[in-house]
Amino acid sequence: MPFRMFDGNGAAVEAIRMARPGVIAAYPITPQSSIAEKLSDCVANGQIDAEYIRVESEHSAMSVCVGACLTGVRVATATSSVGLALMHEVCGVTSGCRLPVVMPVVNRSLVAPWSLWCDHQDTMAERDTGWLQFYCGTVQEVLDLTLCAYRISEHQDVLTPSMVCLDGFFLSHSMQKVSAPTDEEAWDFVGPYVRRNMYIDPTDVMFVNDLCPTSEYTEMRYQQKVGFERAADVAREVFDEYGRRFGRRPCTVEKYLLDDADIALVTMGSMSGTAKFAVNELRRQGVKAGLLRICMFRPFPAGEIREALKNVPVVGVVDRSAGLGAAQPPAATEVSAALRGAGCRVFSFVGGLAGRDISDGAFKGLYSELLDVFEGQAQSVNTWFDLKGDPMALREVDIIC
Amino acid sequence: MVKLKFYGIGGQGAVTAAKVLSEAVSLFEGRYAITVPAYGHERRGAPVFAHIIVDDEPVLLNCYVYDPDIVVVMDEGIIDKKVDVTEGCTGSTVLVLNSGSEDYVSRYRQLGAFGDIYVCDATAAAERNMGLSIPNSAMLGALAKTGLVSIEAVEKAVADSFGKVGEVNVNAARDAYEHTRKA
User: Fold this and answer.
1) B28 CB near a chain A CB, below 8 Å?
2) Element (H, E) at A279
């Protein structure tokens, strides 16, 4: 398979093009913009035979996707940050109507303070919207997971939309070498869109998403819950098949040097490669460090995570989200729940907000804190690990109004 | 593993140059690279940075470069804009400088952060070959003089990246390569 060069956004567009959507509606937002632009180019120059419907907002973009998908066509859109927040209402409509939309989300902070840069607060705010969520570690994975997401979401036992999350700039604008299938190979894998169960016949329209009585709502939600349970198995089956076809098996969780680990970090997204680099250096120094990367966050693979970490005495979970007001931020909360009763000590780290770089040095610092706990030198860790100076003095004003 | 940091001014194509370098080593030399552009509030005239890591093995690191082996300065005047191009430099860090001015070359040398200094008036090379003062392709030609990447790989990646204006960009890269000297 020949190598090609893509940045993360380019890889997302390539996967979408290969899946041959019939309707596209996307509203540009930094750092997603080049996805919306390149999809438009693809329609203009005939590379995608689709109708590109221009919209004035992300709320409308997803509404167009819902309507179009209900007629029985594969749709495409993409967003980021406040665009996803504006889409929130319709994201629930999408999942509740069991429409298997696949949407790249380029991770960017939520506001305020205003920011253009990467963290996971946008997609974490959507983690209970009824969408599957995959977090990419590399540009290669953007391509692989987007192609797989069509198969997982559209599976008749799943019928649940997917967010394929890629870190803003660290992936969206990072040029990397990618092994891509041919158009024919990709189409043979993804296959044509097949409408199931609920759909709209434009010549004989019906009311969709009308008022659902209390007597049925719980059962409708339960159906979604079953869809999520099936999604975990279907994802593994699809990943196996993708691996057989293309030689790379995407994963729900990635285990890295965990078998004999005394200490381990749990990471998500583009930071994970840097963390592995730090693990390699620590191993050379004789420190038994390991790493678990969560690739599939919804459905949360609690069983696999428990199995992978149950024998690691000290675990740190790195959230690229503030998790304001929560007992722990999102990933740490879920990992802690998965490890309940396993005997591991689980600590939370928060950092990398709004594009603050997490260097290999920063990861070595986190492992050093975990090692101190493991060796009994410390009882806890500094959760907000990359704070600078005196944070309470930043932009402090003393003018009495 | 070689770590590079590109410094430029918005509009000069520093981020594009980093991506093209990534393609040159990845597709045409069978190696691997990762680019992490440090986007700011983009506008023409503002300082722009890009970080690139090149290796024979797949690159695990996906973070900024803090200790560059090579610094590429696409605009000599950037040191007058409160940008510290010596950040993380070791004294043996190689500098590739776009300059036609001996004064600037000696100012960069006096910073004490660099070992070998390669100088090329890449903006002039761009103007000669393209009629435009966008020095990114020319600076990749200058960078090839350090031995990091072959000029042939640079030419192939430039041709592939710039479409209709590929040929004039290739000419600018070759011209700059031939006019790059060790200061």
Assistant:
1) no
2) helix A271-284
Q: Smallest CA–CA separation between B101 and chain A, in Å? A: 33
Q: What is d(CA A17, CA A24) in angstroms, rounded to the nearest whole number? A: 11
pLDDT of residue B38: 77
Strands B181-182 and B114-120: antiparallel
**Facing residue for A359 by CB, picked from B18, B34, B63:** B63
Averaged pLDDT score across all residues of chain B: 94
Q: What is the pLDDT of residue B47?
A: 86
To probe the interface with B, which of A4, A175, A254, A280 has the most B CB atoms within 10 Å? A175
pLDDT tens-place string over residues A262-321:
999 999 999 999 999 999 999 999 999 999 999 999 999 999 999 999 999 999 999 999
Fold of the domain built from segment(s) A3-246:
Rossmann fold (3.40.50)
The DSSP output letter for A201 is B
Q: Which residues of A touch B (CB under 8 A)?
A: 3-5, 7, 31, 116-117, 138, 169-171, 173-177, 270-271, 273-274, 276-277, 280, 357-361
Which residues does chain A have with pLDDT short of 50?
Answer: none
- Per CB-CB distance under 8 Å, the chain A contacts of B35 are 173-176
For A130, the token pair is: 């009824």
B37·A270 Cβ contact <8 A: no
pTM of the complete model beyond 0.90: yes
Contact at CB, A3 and B27, closer than 8 angstroms: yes
User: How do residues A130-169 score in pLDDT, each as one tens digit?
Assistant: 999 999 999 999 999 999 999 999 999 999 999 999 999 9
- The burial of A82, by beta-carbon neighbours within 10 Å (0-12 exposed, 13-18 middle, 19 or more buried), is given as middle
Quote the CA–CA distance of A11 and B163 in Å, as a whole number. 19
Q: Please report residues of B whose CB lies closer than 8 A to that of A171.
A: 62
Q: Do B23 and A271 touch (CB under 8 A)?
A: no
Give the ipTM of the model, two decimals please: 0.93
Four-residue CA torsion sign, A180, A183, A184, A190 = positive
Taking the C-alpha atoms of residue B150 and residue B141, their distance in angstroms, rounded to an integer, is 9
Interatomic CA distance for residues A246 and A248, integer angstroms: 6
Q: Which residues of chain A does CATH 3.40.50.920 include?
A: 253-374
CATH fold of A253-374: Rossmann fold (3.40.50)
Asked if A175 lies within 8 A of B59 by C-beta distance, the reply is no
Query: Contact B26/A173, CB-based, under 8 Å?
Result: no
Position A68, amino acid: A
How many residue contacts between A and B have a Cβ separation below 8 Å? Answer: 70
Q: Do B33 and A177 touch (CB under 8 A)?
A: yes
CB contact under 8 A, B33 and A175: yes
Q: Within an 8 Å CB–CB cutoff, is residue B55 touching chain A?
A: no
> How much is the pLDDT for A199?
87
Question: Domains along chain B?
Answer: 2-182 (3.40.920.10)
